[in-house]
User: Fold this.
Amino acid sequence: MRFLSIVASTVTLATALPATAQTTQPVATPANPAPAPSAWPTKEADVTLRAFRFKTGETMDVRMHYTTLGTPHRGADGQIDNAIMVLHGTGGTGKQFLSPQFADELYGPGQPFDIRTHYVILPDNIGHGASSKPSDGKRMAFPKYDYDDMVAAQKAMLDKIGITRLKVILGTSMGCMHAFVWGETFPGFAERLAPFACLPVPIAGLNRMWRKLTIDAVQADPAWNGGNYATQPEQGLRTAASLSIIAGANPLALQKQYPTRAASEAFLAQAFARNSAGRDANDYIYQLDASRNYDPSAALEKITVPVLWINSEDDFINPSGYGITDAAARRMPHATFRLIAASPETKGHGTHTWAKFWKADLARLMAEPVTPSR
Assistant:
């Protein structure tokens, strides 16, 4: 196999020491802390998207930060042919996929995303991590991005670094929804899609309500001051953390782990601190509200590549009883839907990042033959 290194004037590249965890937890992750990241060999880089146009018509230079593992390989057509992109959830960053429950199951020899043969790209999406976000200085004057803007920026980032096709897009939570948007907006760019922990319908009902309650809680704190705060609005963020803990929880696991009132309340004190650490109030508002226009439901037939769609039975955000998944999966000709049964071991909404629950399914998806469409 012939490998290459990417060099471009638009890319700032730095070899990184073993990566550290993201500075904030994704919204609605399991309440218990995840293990520390493994020491995987990573590189980090930025690309600048000059005069990026948002759907609102606003333009600005957008910085897209990303982390990579492995080495790009060029096929007979001269194009990179071994790239994979993994998309994080609301409030997270690409580095969340360096945690052992994900990385140690997928990146090693013989595993589905073996970095000896795959080039894994982990972006920080607009509004998150080290990419452009309100807390960089614009605060509430930052363009009101939505999921279409975020996917457009991902595509522009890939263009800048010379990626013309992907072996797979795996997305969790918000990234799951982005995967459906990708499948309809850029059909065939990714040979396979693996959306985990979402539904291909508008963010409405309970899902919109808990997001709006969270936004309202932050904005109702006088310290928020229209987004022009000198210190974080702690009371608003505490209420936001409370909602996030509930949204991400597995009731079976919490009952087993914290069977008394004292144990439950002691746990909450720790969970509040973890959920709020590094959280910026304006960034949080934008992150939650970005889903407001999401609705891939009308065009699922455009998604003709193999799809592995996985939800979990204990997901508060995407309940299994809505009657949505079977009908939606039938509209995608090569889609497989799996519902992971709830147990004391599953992680609620955050089951999406614990690869032991779905690693075998992903291996089957990666082995599935595809018809090149590009």
